[in-house]
Design a protein that fits this description.
Blueprint (H helix, E strand, L loop, with lengths): L6 E4 L10 H9 L2 E4 L3 E5 L2 H5 L10 E4 L2 H13 L9 E4 L2 H6 L10 E3 L10 H6 L5 E6 L5 H8 L4 E11 L12 E4 L2 H10 L9 E5 L1 H9 L6 E3 L7 H17 L1
Parallel strand pairs: 1-2, 1-9, 4-5, 4-7, 5-6, 7-8, 9-10, 10-11
Antiparallel strand pairs: 3-8
Amino acid sequence: MISNVKKILVSQPEPGNGKSPYYDIAEKYGVQIVFRPFIKIEPVSVKEFRTQKINILDYSAVIFTAKTAIDHYFLMAKELKIQIPECMKYFCVTETIAVYLQKYIVYRKRKIFYPPSGKAEDIIIPIHKHNKENYLLPVSDIHKEDLTHLLDEKKIKYNKAVMYKTVSNDFLKNEEFDYDVLLFFSPAGISSLLKNFPDFNQDGIAIGTFGPSTAKAVRDAGLRLDIEAPNQESPSMTAALENYLKKMQESEIL
């Protein structure tokens, strides 16, 4: 066990299959890892959605950037009592997201597109080939604009529809907060940390982030960033965490 790292918070849901590199790290270094999201996703109400003046059936194609977007698109259609036509075209940024559509539609009978390259940004290629379509882009209230910039550049006709929102997953009054390492995956997680603990004093708590926007949120909040991914040495958050624990272990030996 590393004496000054005993408990690590991973601000993501616990893996449902009971398998994760985090469990291997916990066993290898004798630390406790707790999965505890700082944020949660909630659907936009029908009333809120209607204020956007968007009619789902006005669009001939949908662009999905996440499985969550698929869930809330079909949930909104159900709540609005709308039957999505079989001729609807679906454009997904990855094959994994495309396959997830099977939860709601007969996959082999629908027109589904995704970039064979596996690069999310390459979804613009099939979209541009079908540039006569009227696209709907389901998003969260907090979302990146990378794809919309590409759509604007190619002069694609589209509309964003906020169908779900990211909110703080508040800590209970009696909930312990005795972590030595905090790992974050979105700027919203940092906002939630400061909302839950307005007098948060980092002291010896290590903070790790995945992605440049989350790292920036830590620095903008005046906090110290100790673990950062992805990079050449650490392509994943688990790799970055293990490298950090190795260094901590080596410093103790010395």
